[in-house]
Design goal:
Type Iii Antifreeze Protein Isoform Hplc 12; alpha+beta; 3 domains; five-stranded antiparallel β-sheet; elongated
């Protein structure tokens, strides 16, 4: 066989091997998806995060996003680094760890607010769903602390995403929504920091719903 013929044969063999490898990889990926569920995004801290240090947009941009099978996603794992903005680790988070909602709390904000709200907080009214569930236990919810949970609209063929957008905020008032609002929606006045207020006001424009979850 000529040198040119041998080169062509080598190229054909390489193409056949690459095609076979791709087919094997696709088949393996399909088996993994069937056995462990669809791949879901999770946020990972590539470097250690110190306790009490707020995660600003610059630090959030340094967080990594990975996709892992749904079976291995820890409960409360963040799916988007933007969810961590304005929050601070309750305790030090080691490098390589998944970021969980339970690991984070609202960052302390300097400045003073109205009496009883704490430093840096202001009353802000938002529209929420499922407020009637707060009354089931027979306890007056106003004055208690609640988590504000955001559920986004599905993206394409995927599912919507649910995350805690503001944790342990004081509920100052709860009443009917403005006339013409969707049934089941109520107006809640919360004591929020500026960052929390901006995050929730933005969520009102794109999220499917905002829900108040009483602190257990």
């Amino acid at each position: 066989m000529s040198r040119r013929g041998r080169a062509l044969a080598f190229v054909l063999a390489a193409l056949i091997a690459a095609t076979a490898a791709a087919a094997i990889a696709d088949g393996y990926g399909a088996r993994v998806a069937r056995g462990y569920g669809e791949l879901r995004p999770v946020v990972v801290a590539p470097t250690a995060l110190e306790a009490g240090h707020a995660i600003d947009p610059r630090r959030a941009a340094g967080l990594e996003s990975r996709r892992i099978p749904a079976r291995f996603v820890p409960p409360g794992a963040l799916g988007d680094a933007a969810e961590a903005i304005g929050l601070a680790p309750r305790a030090a988070i080691p490098a390589g760890s998944y970021l969980l909602a339970s690991q984070l709390r609202p960052a302390r904000v300097e400045g003073s607010g109205p009496p009883g709200l704490g430093r840096g907080r202001r009353p802000v009214e938002i529209s929420v769903s499922g407020a009637e569930a707060l009354l089931v236990a027979g306890v007056q919810p106003v004055g208690q602390r609640v988590d504000v949970v955001v559920t986004t609209e599905p993206a394409g063929s995927g599912r919507g995403h649910t995350y805690v957008a503001a944790a342990a905020v004081p509920l100052l008032a709860l009443g009917p929504a403005v006339e013409g609002a969707v049934e089941g929606v109520a107006a809640a006045t919360l004591g929020l920091t500026r960052r929390q207020a901006l995050r929730l006001i933005a969520a009102e424009s794109f999220a499917r719903q905002l829900t108040l979850l009483p602190r257990g």
